[in-house]
TrEMBL record:
Listed transmembrane segments: none
Presence of keyword Cytoplasm: no
Family matches, as PANTHER family: ENOYL-[ACYL-CARRIER-PROTEIN] REDUCTASE, MITOCHONDRIAL
Family: Belongs to the zinc-containing alcohol dehydrogenase family. Quinone oxidoreductase subfamily.
GO MF term (any one): enoyl-[acyl-carrier-protein] reductase (NADPH) activity
A Pfam family it matches: ADH_zinc_N
Class of this enzyme: oxidoreductase
Presence of the UniProt keyword Mitochondrion in the record: yes
Protein name, as recorded: Enoyl-[acyl-carrier-protein] reductase, mitochondrial
GO cellular component: mitochondrion
Length: 401
């Protein structure tokens, strides 16, 4: 081979390598600088190209590809506006069974606030990162990871993993994948409220099209999901909300989602309820997210043998069950906590996957939308926390990373 041919071969090889190098950069897998590769000989370039091709295909590394990570930490329990701080976080190496996740969006839920205040049923060790829900994208996987690949959207399988951060390294078993063809805000708010709603509508009464469900806190994230999932199944909903200045606008919005009836708390104790039940049957299922007198009134309107499921207690008052409801109507009083459901089904991949697939199908069909959301950057977390703690709020506060 003459000198001209050698030069031509070297030029073509270097050009091929640079093309591979560009692809590696786009995939986010490049860990060496361009100038370092340009200084290599053609023989070294061949070895480097093969090595980089392997990294693009598998996407593993002992050194994290995300250099800078920030998160919302709290070191003590208390008022979220005082104890939550934005801090830098050092990520651990991506081990063989670990996954590096770049967080995309994470909402602020009431349970998150209660955890920070120290009043929730489960409390992580301090210091910790806030947030129990959110969606991220896989940026890197360990050599023993089999179910996930770079680019997958994932959500936490359980609570307590700390989603208010830009990136995190988790075990593969702590994550479950989602299709990336659903809206970002739907994915970010999927694992708590819609999962709570669909389980309560499925697990306590065998509801058929034409049956009725009554619920308080109908404007909450769970309440809105209940309305939409029930409507998709042909089930009527009687939705109880607190009186407020914009009641008509709220009523119109809930009915646009599929609500059959929207009534005020006071209406539960009035004769108008008899007229309402002329247009739809008495409910077989009551969903209580408030407690106190509101829960008692829900019980009074159940069918004989019906079930009331309590999943929240916003009024911070105990549930009082009338003796007559137990004796003469044989009502059942149950509780539900989606975190416990996930723990009980942690080894049942079919149940978790089936639930998420059903919800994603409804989302794609336009039958399940997220609640109204207000987006905030991580730097604006104080504003987001303050808004999340306001009464009568209709919007979910979501941190966009």
């Amino acid at each position: 081979m003459n000198g001209a041919n050698v030069s031509c071969f070297a030029f073509k090889f270097i050009r091929l390598h640079k093309r591979e190098l560009c692809r590696a950069r786009i995939a986010g897998q490049l860990c060496r600088t361009h100038s370092q590769h340009d200084s290599l000989s053609p023989g070294h370039l061949l070895l480097s190209s093969r090595y980089m091709s392997h990294r693009i295909h598998r996407g593993y590394s002992s050194k994290s590809l995300v250099k800078d990570c920030r998160g919302l930490l709290y070191r003590n329990h208390g008022d979220p506006s005082h104890v939550v701080k934005l801090e830098s976080i050092e990520l651990p190496p991506v081990g063989a069974d670990r996954v590096l996740v770049k967080m995309l969006a994470a909402p602020i839920n009431p349970a998150d606030i209660n955890m920070i205040q120290g009043t929730y049923a489960i409390l992580p060790d301090l210091p910790t990162v806030g947030g129990n829900e959110g969606v991220g994208q896989v940026a890197e996987v360990g050599s023993q990871v089999t179910r996930l690949k770079v680019g997958d959207w994932v959500i936490p399988r359980d609570a307590g993993l700390g989603t208010w951060r830009t990136a995190t390294v988790l075990r593969e078993e702590d994550l479950i994948s989602l299709p990336s063809d659903i809206p970002l805000l739907s994915a970010a708010t999927l694992s708590v409220n819609p999962c709570t709603a669909i389980r309560m509508l499925s697990d306590f009464e065998d509801l058929k099209p034409g049956d009725s469900v009554i619920q308080n806190a109908a404007n909450s994230g769970v309440g809105q999901a209940v309305i939409q999932i029930a409507a998709a199944r042909g089930v009527h909903t009687i939705n109880v909300v607190r009186d407020r200045p914009d009641l008509q606008q709220l009523t119109d919005r809930l009915k646009a989602m599929g609500a059959t009836h929207v009534i005020k708390e006071e209406t539960l104790r009035r004769p108008e309820m008899k007229e309402l039940f002329k247009t739809c049957p008495r409910p077989r299922l009551a969903l209580n997210g408030v407690g106190g007198k509101s829960a008692t009134e829900l019980l009074r309107h159940l069918q004989t043998g019906g079930t009331m499921v309590t999943y929240g207690g916003m009024a911070k008052q105990p549930v009082t069950v009338p003796v007559s409801a137990l004796i003469f109507k044989d009502v059942k009083v149950r509780g539900f906590w989606v975190t416990q459901w996930k723990k009980d089904h942690s080894q049942d991949e079919v149940a978790a996957r089936g639930m998420l697939d059903e919800l994603c199908t409804l989302i794609r069909a336009g039958k399940l939308s997220p609640p109204a959301c207000t987006e905030h950057s991580l730097q604006d977390f104080k504003k987001a926390l303050d808004a999340a703690m306001q009464p009568y709020t209709s919007a979910k506060q979501v941190l966009i990373m």
